[in-house]
Every structure is written in structure tokens, then in C-alpha cells.
């Protein structure tokens, strides 16, 4: 006879380390280390970057501040692009991996500007007056910042979702608690990493010079990339899906085209909805019901092909597509609040 403890053990079994399973808790240290070391390496450069540009490149304070501002803005904007590419074309594993490599290359280029005097304009050590930087010197600097920006966008856009893929077991009763615990540890590691970055890395730059101050982030980013790829054989690597934006647009267009369809007061299993193969959703939710018209099968002979697929995806969408758009709409107020706080 099975006991409650046996049931819990069976529920947790998919997350244990086995010879053939993928994902699980064993991948968490590598994913968290990848994100944490990347944060320390990149965030530790921002506080003193304006000093580096004014003292070593002779840029005016206003121009140096503009460069840092554009760099910081690009770090945030590239996360949106990275998330779109990861979900629609590349996949989260490749996006994090490519981001790690590009961030490392960008840090190496920035380190080279500190190692070799030829990479910077000549500055008088007594008067602290620097010459005008040449185009190749600025190109090297901007390439390093650009590579770091693209790399950080790739890592930060997909690292959290990629970690959730390793722990997402729908047949586990404790799945929600496990994911919640992972999210907590993830954000705690980010906060601790940023604290280390703005204290230790800045201290090293102020007291040991730019060569060591930029060399330490290079070493940390190398550890970050190595940590991620060292567990490559253990990861769950879900393939990229079709474009999310295209799916959202299809739901909006289909719901508009089917706007004359009358929906009952409450969804029932008797109604015919277009379901995705393997989907756990049988009917759409009652919230934002006008979007439910996008997944109603009016005439199976006309709306569906012989294989059971939609003959026109711009007139008929799956229940999953409808619910994904609803989820996006529901979180928009939270995202807007975060944007206003940042502004």
C-alpha cells in the first residue's frame, strides 16, 4: 500500500538525476552561475565607464554620458529583440549560448583598449589632456560596447525562461512551488551579483587600474560561458515555435472576422473549439471573451483540412493562441508600471 510520502517521492522523481533524463535541479547551478557572473561582469563596468571615457579617451562629459546612456538603453532594448528571436527562430539554449560568447568577446575588446596604449588617444599624464580619438579607436570602443549589449540581451532575455524549462513538469503536483522557488533564487542571485558588481568591481577599477579592472570582468564572463556550456548535455532544449507576434496578430484578425458569431454566456465542452495537438486546454477562459471567437470552428469541412489543421490560420486559431494573447494583455499593466518607475 502506497503512503503519502511515496506519492511525493513519485511526484519528485522527474526532477531527480537519472542516466537518461534531461533537465532537473542539477542544471540550476550552471544556469544561475551563467547569469550571476554575467551580471557581475557587465554591471560592474557601468559606474566607472564615464570616467574611463573622459580620462582615457578625452571625451567631453556630455558626450561620454550620451555614450553610456545609449549603451544602457541598448542593453534593455536588446532583451526584447532577444526574447522574440529565441521564442520564434533560434531557441532559448542557442540564444543564451550566443549571448555568452558575444559578451565575452565584447569584454575582451574593451580590455584590449586598456592594455594597449595604441587603442586610445595619447593623454598627457601631467596635465591629463588627451588628444582627439581617431576613428579606428572609437570603432574598437563602440564595437566592444555593442557586442556586450547584444550579448547581455541574449542572456537576460532567455536565461530565466530556459531555467524554467528545466524544472517544468506538468505531471508534478509541486510544479508551481518548484518554479516559484527557482524564480526567487534567480532574482536573489541577480540582486547579490549587482551588489558585488557595484562594490568589488568598482573598487578594483579605482585602486588597481583599468587593466585589472577590465581583466577581472573578462575572467568572470569566461567562467559564465564555461559554466553554461559545461552542462550542455543535461539541458532540456525546447525548439523554437512560430513567431509569437504573428500568432497574436492572427488571433486579433480572426476574432475580428468572426465578430458576428454569438458566444453563449459560458463556455462548455459541447462547443467546438480548435485545439492544438497535445493541448491541455479544452475551452478558452471566460476573461476577454471577445477573443474566444478566434478559436470557434464554424464549419469543420471548410475551416479544417483533412489533417485537422486550420485551413486559414487568419480565420481560425487554437485555444492556446487565444490564451497566450490574453496572458500578455493581463500582464501589460504590470509592465507599464515597471516602465514608469524606471522613467
How would you characterize this protein structure?
This protein has helices at 4-12, 28-43, 46-56, 61-90, 92-115, 135-167, 175-230, 244-257, 300-303, 319-342. The relative contact order is 0.13. It has 343 residues and is mainly alpha-helical. 64% of the residues lie in helices and 0% in strands. The longest helix has 56 residues, at 175-230.
Looking at this protein, list some descriptive labels.
64% helix; elongated; disordered N terminus; mainly alpha; single chain; 343 residues
Summarize this entry quickly:
With 343 residues, the chain is mainly α.
Topology:
Elements: H1 4-12, H2 28-43, H3 46-56, H4 61-90, H5 92-115, H6 135-167, H7 175-230, H8 244-257, H9 300-303, H10 319-342
Mean pLDDT: 85
Shape: elongated
H and E string: HHHHHHHHHH
Task: Tally the beta strands.
Answer: 0
Individual helix count? 10
- Approximately how much beta-strand content do the residues carry? under 5%
Radius of gyration: 25 Å
Amino acid at each position: 500500500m502506497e503512503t503519502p510520502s511515496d506519492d511525493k517521492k513519485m511526484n519528485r522523481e522527474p526532477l531527480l538525476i537519472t542516466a537518461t533524463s534531461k533537465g532537473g535541479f542539477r542544471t540550476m547551478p550552471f544556469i544561475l552561475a551563467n547569469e550571476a557572473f554575467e551580471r557581475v561582469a557587465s554591471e560592474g563596468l557601468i559606474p566607472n565607464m564615464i570616467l574611463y571615457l573622459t580620462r582615457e579617451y578625452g571625451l567631453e562629459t556630455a558626450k561620454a554620458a550620451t555614450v553610456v546612456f545609449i549603451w544602457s538603453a541598448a542593453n534593455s532594448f536588446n532583451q526584447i529583440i532577444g526574447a522574440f528571436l529565441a521564442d520564434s527562430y533560434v531557441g532559448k539554449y542557442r540564444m543564451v549560448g550566443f549571448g555568452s560568447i558575444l559578451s565575452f568577446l565584447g569584454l575582451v575588446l574593451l580590455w584590449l583598449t586598456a592594455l594597449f596604449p595604441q587603442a586610445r588617444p595619447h593623454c598627457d599624464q601631467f596635465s591629463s589632456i588627451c588628444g582627439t580619438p581617431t576613428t579606428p579607436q572609437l570603432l574598437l570602443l563602440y564595437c566592444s560596447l555593442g557586442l556586450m549589449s547584444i550579448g547581455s540581451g541574449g542572456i537576460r532575455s532567455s536565461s530565466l525562461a530556459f531555467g524554467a524549462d528545466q524544472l517544468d513538469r506538468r505531471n508534478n503536483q509541486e510544479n508551481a512551488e518548484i518554479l516559484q522557488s527557482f524564480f526567487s533564487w534567480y532574482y536573489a542571485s541577480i540582486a547579490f551579483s549587482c551588489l558585488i558588481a557595484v562594490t568589488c568591481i568598482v573598487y578594483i577599477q579605482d585602486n588597481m587600474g583599468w587593466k585589472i579592472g577590465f581583466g577581472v570582468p573578462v575572467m568572470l564572463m569566461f567562467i559564465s560561458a564555461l559554466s553554461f556550456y559545461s552542462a550542455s548535455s543535461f539541458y532540456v532544449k525546447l525548439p523554437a515555435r512560430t513567431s509569437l507576434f504573428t500568432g497574436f496578430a492572427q488571433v486579433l484578425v480572426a476574432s475580428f472576422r468572426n465578430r458576428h458569431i454569438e458566444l453563449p454566456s459560458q463556455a462548455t465542452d459541447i462547443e467546438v473549439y480548435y485545439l492544438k495537438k497535445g493541448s491541455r486546454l479544452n475551452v478558452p477562459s471566460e476573461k476577454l471573451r471577445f477573443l474566444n471567437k478566434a478559436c470557434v470552428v464554424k464549419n469543420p469541412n471548410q475551416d479544417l483540412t483533412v489533417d485537422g489543421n486550420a485551413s486559414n490560420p487568419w480565420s481560425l486559431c487554437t485555444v492556446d493562441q487565444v490564451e497566450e494573447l490574453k496572458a500578455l494583455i493581463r500582464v501589460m499593466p504590470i509592465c507599464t508600471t515597471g516602465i514608469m518607475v524606471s522613467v
